[in-house]
Design brief:
Rossmann fold, four-stranded parallel beta sheet, binds succinic acid
């Protein structure tokens, strides 16, 4: 007489077991994405929900960031690591080397499909470009930030993080180099730059254009950067514990040589000149740069304009001065390439080749 209810119970148990197994298989099929947290506004908190300036960056830990977006679990098997917790104005070579080594170690594992790095927006483009040159994998690496702290009304961090995880777990992002994802848009590390101090649509790739969008729960790519990156570069940070000192000297009306001379005296091995226009050299600056070069400092002529090529032998005779030109890299990215170049060579011919390649 107990046979029928027992059978029903058994059938119910089988059903539940099958459902659990199905759910487990579905989860196992999701891409495995590691979130490396470094701080920034995405992990920031303000005094009130309307505080969008004057808040404190880098206070929320990686576990809380992941917990705040339960939707992540539906699109990836996500795990988190707190690499450091800083506002990105304090990002330095030491942090870059640490981060790059951790990214390379994780991407070498067969059970990691992609990486998301949460980061302050102020120097996100620099970290992304550094990684673009030293990551040794085709797997996606996506750097993400937010313009509003996590406590703000309409904070952009959660949706940006969700879009970044979607992109890092996608096949479409494989082999595209390091990407920066914010405001539903995907930009290449080499070209992206911050264009507005506070608005959420601040990240642009002026003139050259973004790579695509993240819309409808998936990334859509329309183009790729043609410059070499990641596995195709000659840079290797695995044995590096420091990077050569490279600084930026900015030009403006009435500029003198004081900053250049001070930077050289402070030990710069390379200098990026953020010149006016097409990287022009003001008369009072040229002799200081020329003398620095004669003393072994490598000089890269860049521009403060932010768009366009600095033409070799255009506004200065680079062959005669033995200078390098930055191509389209802005001064802060030219600094990164010059630092890495100096880990390989001091030949200006070779360094110029690198600026035309990466
Ligand atoms: C930072 O860069 O750490 C602060 C600003 C931001 O993340 O938007």
């Amino acid at each position: 007489m107990y046979l029928k209810p027992m059978r029903t119970l058994f059938a119910l148990f089988l059903c539940l077991f099958a459902l659990a197994a199905q759910a487990q298989t579905a989860t196992a099929k999701l891409p495995r994405v590691v979130i490396l947290a470094t701080g920034g506004t995405i992990a920031g908190t303000g005094a009130t929900s309307t505080t969008t300036v004057g808040y404190t960056a880098a206070t929320v830990g990686v576990d809380a960031l992941i917990k705040a977006v339960p939707e992540l679990q539906k699109v990836a098997q996500v795990s988190g690591e707190q690499v450091f917790q800083i506002a990105s104005e304090n990002m330095g070579n030491e942090q870059w080397l640490l981060l790059a080594k951790r990214v390379n170690a994780l991407l070498a594992k067969p059970d990691v499909d992609g990486i998301v790095i949460t980061h302050g927006t102020d120097t996100i483009e620099e970290t992304a470009y550094f990684l673009n040159l030293v990551v040794k994998s085709r797997k996606p690496v996506v750097v993400v930030g937010a313009m509003r702290p996590s406590t703000a009304i309409s904070a952009d961090g959660p949706i940006n993080l969700y879009n970044a995880v979607l992109t890092a777990g996608s096949q479409e992002a494989v082999g595209k180099g390091v990407l920066v994802v914010l405001n539903d848009q995907i930009n290449a590390a080499r070209e992206v730059t911050k264009t507005n101090t506070v608005t959420t649509d601040t990240f642009k790739s002026p003139e050259l254009g973004m790579l695509g969008y993240v819309v409808g729960n998936q990334p859509h790519f329309y183009r790729a950067s043609t410059r070499k990156h990641t596995l195709e570069t000659e840079f290797d940070v695995s044995n590096l514990t420091a990077l050569p000192q490279v600084d930026i000297a900015y030009s403006y009306a009435n500029v003198g040589p004081a900053a250049i001379n001070a930077l050289v005296a402070a030990g710069a091995k390379g200098l990026v000149h953020a010149g006016v226009g097409d990287g022009s050299l003001p008369t009072k600056v040229r002799p200081a740069l020329s003398s620095a070069r004669k003393n072994g400092v490598v000089i890269v002529r860049s521009s403060r304009v932010g768009q366009g090529i600095v033409a070799r032998n255009g506004e200065a005779n680079d062959d005669e001065l033995d200078f390098v030109v930055s191509d389209t890299l802005n001064p802060q990215k030219a600094r990164i390439l010059l630092m890495l170049a100096l880990t390989k060579t001091t030949s200006t011919k070779d360094i110029q080749r690198m600026f035309s390649t990466y």
